[in-house]
Amino acid sequence: MLQQTQVSRAVPRYLAWLERWPTVEALAAARPADVITEWAGMGYNRRAVFLHRCAIAVTEMGGFPREPEELRRLPGVGPYTAAAIACFAFDAQVAAPDTNAKRVLERAFGDADLAPPPGLAYEWNQALFDLGREVCIARRPRCEVCPLADGCPSRGRTYAPLRKQSRFEGSFRQRRAELLRAIAAAGSLPDADADTEALVSLVRDGLAEVSGGYARLPA
Ligand code: SF4
């Protein structure tokens, strides 16, 4: 949930999610349509499909794999997520830098993939998250309060504005989201009435299915 959604928005949804599906097995047994509906409003809906498929895979395996290489074989789990699960859930001694943490590492040490000190991977990764989010921020880092300032070659620098995220308004993402909302609200929609391009994309991503001339959420 936190990959693309703000903490303040994700937390209540996360708690509601755990109320409904308190275990991996419970989520694996859910209907895809229910999972997609529960996710509604958080955006990037493919995450719901991947999370559900991931729960099915973990249930079939009899539990979570623990090594990053094995975790990466799960649906929707890329290198960053695999490293983060391995470190935070299973205490693997691996770096798990998100975008903010990579920025700190690059500026302070010139190496975005720097390995954590032995035995301190959890603390290292968490500290880098905090520094990247609160102190070593994108444009005007707050070097005056930074604990790395003494040895940091980037101290005092400022940076050009980041490229703005493309607008949601009028985008293909918006068309997909609107169609998914309409299908969920109606239960089924004649596929002839749907935005064809958006529908094809939803079907390809496992967010909808078409049969008998109607589009529905996956059964
Ligand atoms: S001293 Fe400044 S640039 Fe260096 S890590 Fe700290 S906040 Fe970032």
How many structural units, i.e. domains?
A: 3
Mean pLDDT: 94
| Order of strands in the sheet with most strands | 1-3-2
CATH superfamily of the largest domain: Hypothetical protein, domain 2
Q: What's the architecture of the largest domain in CATH terms?
A: Orthogonal Bundle
Rounded to the nearest angstrom, the radius of gyration is: 21 Å
Instruction: Write down the secondary-structure element order.
Output: HHHHHHHHHEHEE
Structural class, please?
mainly alpha
- Helical stretch tally: 10
CATH class membership of the largest domain: Mainly Alpha
Q: Give the overall silhouette.
A: globular
User: Cα distance, first to last residue?
Assistant: 23 Å
Q: Helical proportion?
A: 40-55%
Uncertain runs? none
Small molecules bound in the structure, each named once: iron/sulfur cluster
> Main β-sheet, in a few words?
3 strands, antiparallel
CATH topology type of the largest domain:
Endonuclease III, domain 1
Strand residues, percent: under 5%
Q: Characterize the quaternary organization of these chains.
A: single chain
Would you kindly provide a written description of the structure presented here, covering whatever features stand out?
This protein has helices at 7-20, 24-28, 32-39, 46-61, 68-71, 79-90, 99-109, 121-135, 172-186, 196-204, and strands spanning 189-190, 209-211, 214-216. By secondary structure, it is mainly alpha-helical. The mean pLDDT is 94. Strands 1-3-2 form a three-stranded antiparallel β-sheet. Helix 7 (99-109) packs across helix 8. The longest helix is centred in the N-terminal third of the chain and has 16 residues, at 46-61. The protein is globular, with a radius of gyration of 21 Å. Strand 2 and strand 3 form a beta hairpin. It has ten helices and three strands, in the order H-H-H-H-H-H-H-H-H-E-H-E-E. It has three domains: 7-63, Orthogonal Bundle (Endonuclease III, domain 1); 99-151, Endonuclease Iii, domain 2 (Orthogonal Bundle); 172-216, no CATH class. The structure holds iron/sulfur cluster. Residues 104, 107-108, 135-136, 141-143, 146, 148-149, 152, 154-155 line the site of iron/sulfur cluster.
